[in-house]
């Protein structure tokens, strides 16, 4: 595992704040049953934020025909939806919700070439709400596989997420299971698949990025 390169500043800021608070506790609070539990809690926050921003090593199960999960989390939507940003057609949408305890690094769902990538500013509604897909801050990316299939996905900011990182650039060749970005704090991924794709997950399933196959093209 390694720390995501775009999160060094965030993690260092968390460490600095916790260090200052621990110093204040030991300097000005002289009641041990207050100081030590709070100190342990702050150290736990440091450990949690380090783990949160890690990029895990995973087996790469996806390919140009097998769509792997972009993120860790829970399947909250499997439905027909019209994709209006780029594809302009009905697709099967599969949504993955990430909570505070999930690793938030994101990974390419299929192997292919990036056709489209765009950032959209927006609101910060709770990510599991249906309107978040249209109104929240998000990035959009579309990948065309060697077989000519298009897989489109959105990285959606949630109620607490304030930064989305996406490495996609049009014309880039990508491989399923390699890192494509990260979202900081609670958020969601919407994956738009061809209507004839065979969906292999259902609402309520827990998925792991890179390793869980969510559909066959």
Characterization of the model:
- This protein is an alpha+beta fold and 217 residues long.
- The chain has 2 domains: 2-55; 66-216, Glucose Permease (Domain IIA), CATH 2.70.70.
- 21% of the residues lie in helices and 37% in strands.
- The protein contains 3 helices and 16 strands.
- The protein has helices at residues 8-28, 32-52, 132-135, and strands at 2-3, 54-55, 66-68, 73-83, 89-98, 105-107, 112-120, 138-144, 150-157, 164-166, 173-174, 179-183, 187-193, 198-199, 206-207, 213-216.
- An 8-stranded antiparallel sheet has the order 11-7-8-9-13-5-4-15, with no helix packed on it.
- Helix 1 runs antiparallel to helix 2.
- The model has no long low-confidence stretch (mean pLDDT 89).
**Major beta sheet, strand line-up:** 11-7-8-9-13-5-4-15
Structural shape: elongated
Helicity, in percent? 10-25%
Number of contiguous helices: 3
Average residue pLDDT: 89
Unreliable stretches (pLDDT < 50, length at least 5) are none
Give the SSE order as H and E letters. EHHEEEEEEHEEEEEEEEE
Beta content comes to: 35-45%
Structural Rg? 19 Å
Determine and state the CATH class of the largest domain: Mainly Beta
Number of domains: 2
- Helix/strand-derived class? alpha+beta
